[in-house]
Amino acid sequence: MKTARKIALAKALYRAVSTARKAVGGTDKVVTTRKGLRYELDLREGIDLAIYLLGAFEPSTCRALAALVKPGMTVLDVGANIGSHTLHLARLVGPAGRVYAFEPTAFAYAKLLRNLALNPDLATRVATYQCFLIREGSQGLPDNVYSSWPLAARPKVHPKLLGQQKSTSGARAQTLDRIMIENGDPAVHVVKLDVDGFECDVLSGASATLSRHKPTLVMELSPYILAERGCSAEQLISLLQSRGYWLFDERTEKRLRTDHDSISRMVHDGESVNVIARIPQ
After folding, report:
1. What tens digit of pLDDT does each residue of 157-176 get?
2. Which value, to the nearest 10 degrees, does the dihedral of the CA atoms of residues 232, 237, 242, 243 take?
């Protein structure tokens, strides 16, 4: 389904939910528990509304991560946003595990910290970084990146992604490899990667981590937004294949064909799909 269609549906649901809550004295902001996790949510935001209504953001990705992540593992959440997957991952890794969560925008990073504070037992398992992950030699930090999907107002949004850019004030730019070295180069088992077109940069800056630890990747594949960042689906897939990775359907775990025509049939313009990339044993 195109992102535009998803957002149109979410806006309709938001109007219904907001009207019902206001009728009983509620507001669009709520602190609530969903599937045993505490969140502070703003129902005017797409990710927040999904958690409120479905109990989780991207339930199929949650199921895929639950099948991959075991107690004691080290997991990276790259593009953590408000912590929708971070909290889930922290519960999966258990007390002996570790989650490293990366979010560059001040808007989403503040919400990530708030949601971790609401789950103190899980927060001790998470290291957070307001950081924009780059390739080695990259020249800097963009002033703004997408981290909000507004449902109520009509701000300037991307015409297909329908996201709103937020400031990266307070963030630093660094490669993933350097940050992992700063932390003693732990064995990384799983990476959740959702960075709206910056995947090639993040993975290029993680060459040593990928080579040494061969983590499984759960990631978004969106050709149109990759192209806007100066990359392409073919380049991203080639980068992964050069390191021995195969792509699999997130839901069915069926291996995917990765030639241009197959990708074009699988992901239409304005769409994205989540895939699993792993090195076969």
Report:
1. 999 999 999 999 999 999 99
2. 120
Kindly tell me the burial class for residue 70, based on how many C-beta atoms sit within 10 Å of its own C-beta (0-12, 13-18, 19 or more): middle
Strands 74-78 and 37-42: unpaired
SS3 at position 150 = strand
Element (H, E) at 249: strand 246-249
Contacts of 125 (CB under 8 A, 6+ apart): 90, 93, 94, 95, 97, 98, 99
Report if pTM > 0.85.
Answer: yes
Nearest to 145 by CA among 100, 108, 192, 101: 108
> Positive or negative CA dihedral for 229, 218, 82, 56?
positive
Residue ranges per structural domain of the chain: 57-278
Indicate the Cα dihedral angle 251, 254, 259, 263, nearest 10°. -20
Q: Which residue has the tokens 């999966």?
A: 92
Contact of 261 with 209, CB cutoff 8 Å: no
Residue pair 218/91 in contact (Cβ under 8 Å)? The answer is: no
> What is the total residue count of the chain?
281
Task: Please give the pLDDT value at position 140.
Answer: 83
How much of the chain is in helix, strand and coil states, percent to nearest 5? Answer: 40, 25, 40
Enter the CATH code of domain 57-278.
3.40.50.150
Q: How far, in Å, CA of 217 to CA of 33, rounded?
A: 28
Q: How far is CA 121 from the centre of its chain?
A: 22
What tens digit of pLDDT does each residue of 58-115 get?
999 999 999 999 999 999 999 999 999 999 999 999 999 999 999 999 999 999 999 9
The 3-state DSSP class for residue 232 equals coil
Tokens of 89: 């991952």
Helices (DSSP H) in 1-105: which residue ranges? 3-23, 46-54, 59-68, 84-93
